[in-house]
Amino acid sequence: MSVKSGYEMESTRQKKVSRLIQKEIAEIFQRKGNEIAPGKLISVTVVRMSPDLSLAKIYLSIFPSEGKQEVLNTVRDHTSKIRFELGQKIRTQLRIVPELAYFIDDSLDYIENIEKLLKS
Questions:
Q1: Residue in 22, 107, 34 with CA at minimum distance from that of residue 65
Q2: Which residues contact 57 (CB under 8 A, 6 or more apart)?
Q3: How many angstroms separate the CA atoms of 77 and 83, rounded?
Q4: What DSSP state is assigned to residue 71?
């Protein structure tokens, strides 16, 4: 029983850290998005934390979606700057700034595709 409740507390912590990081990274992209990807809107759709909180998997939605792989590569090139800025913002809440890994969230493309298929 204690093992299970310990696990629940850990996942609650993961969720809290995920929300914090999602909010802060979204703000960074709002401010710096034009430098990183001019003419693109980058949204942070999901952040998943590793159990030890050392890695944040960040899922991005990029609009318009043309050239999203290039945008993802550019974001990855800026990872150290983004992580440094994140560290400045969350240093009072977290001792360790997690490593950041970026992925494309293509659920919107998937939904769009389903809608197209349903209309035809």
A1: 107
A2: 47, 48, 49, 50, 101, 103
A3: 11
A4: H
Lookup: tokens for 24: 């802060």
Whether the full predicted model's pTM is greater than 0.85, yes or no, is: no
3-state secondary structure of 54: coil
Could you tell me the domains of the chain?
Answer: 2-119 (3.30.300.20)
What's the rounded Cα separation, in Å, for the pair 16 and 110?
28
C-alpha distances (whole Å) from 80 to each of 65, 69, 92, 108 are 24, 19, 19, 28
Report the run of H or E that residue 61 belongs to, with start and end: strand 55-63
In the chain, % of residues over pLDDT 70 = 92
Token output for 94: 């977290």
Phi then psi for residue 57, to 5 deg, are -90, 115
Radius of gyration of the chain (CA): 16
pLDDT, tens digit, 9 for 90 and up, residues 61-111: 998 888 999 999 999 999 999 999 999 999 999 989 999 999 999 877 777
